[in-house]
Design goal:
alpha+beta; 5-stranded mixed barrel; rod-shaped
């Protein structure tokens, strides 16, 4: 039992399509498209060698163009991962940070172990900025703004990022 060359290319397209579904890397889909193109061209081109060459050239060209386009498009995008989303955010020290020791800071409604960037003491209630993360520990520096005395920290439930709504006064 033999299959037609068009059926062969259709099977190849399905195999690459299923492979793409399993990896979702936008790599194999171009080979699937190349196989579908050659499936239609096999009506006009009988030489298997030429079909394979067309399949390879079209698939690789599509892969290179798509990859270049996606990489160029992706260069200026800043991904807001957990780590990158936390850097530069403000937090409130809830347990005093002693020099060379850790304390606790509240950020986006969650308590984190925190350490001073310049190994200075930061009192509870002070506003700090996250400058780095080491493991599960925030590295913070004190900012010149202080919380208003007696003002509660409110979490903005409507905000996707759940930023802390902090009322501050500037020290002028």
């Amino acid at each position: 039992m033999s299959i037609s060359i068009g059926t062969f290319w259709f099977i190849v397209a399905i195999i690459f399509g299923v492979g793409e579904l399993m990896t979702t890397s936008l790599t194999l889909i171009w080979f699937s498209i190349g196989a579908l193109l050659v499936m239609f061209l096999s009506i006009f081109i009988e030489s298997i060698l030429w079909q394979v060459v067309i399949f390879a050239v079209v698939s690789i060209i599509l892969l290179v163009i798509a990859t270049k386009y996606l990489v160029d498009r992706d260069k200026d995008v800043k991904y807001n991962t957990n780590l990158q989303g936390i850097i530069s955010q403000k937090a409130i020290v809830t347990q005093t940070i002693e020099p060379y020791e850790t304390g606790v800071a509240k950020l986006n409604g969650e308590e984190w172990t925190a350490m001073s960037k310049d190994e200075t003491r930061i009192e509870a209630g002070k506003l700090v900025e996250v400058v780095a993360i080491e493991g599960v520990k925030l590295i913070v520096k004190e900012v010149s703004e202080e919380l208003l005395e007696g003002e509660p920290i409110k979490e903005n439930k409507d905000s996707i990022s759940k930023e802390i709504d902090i009322k501050i006064k500037t020290s002028k």
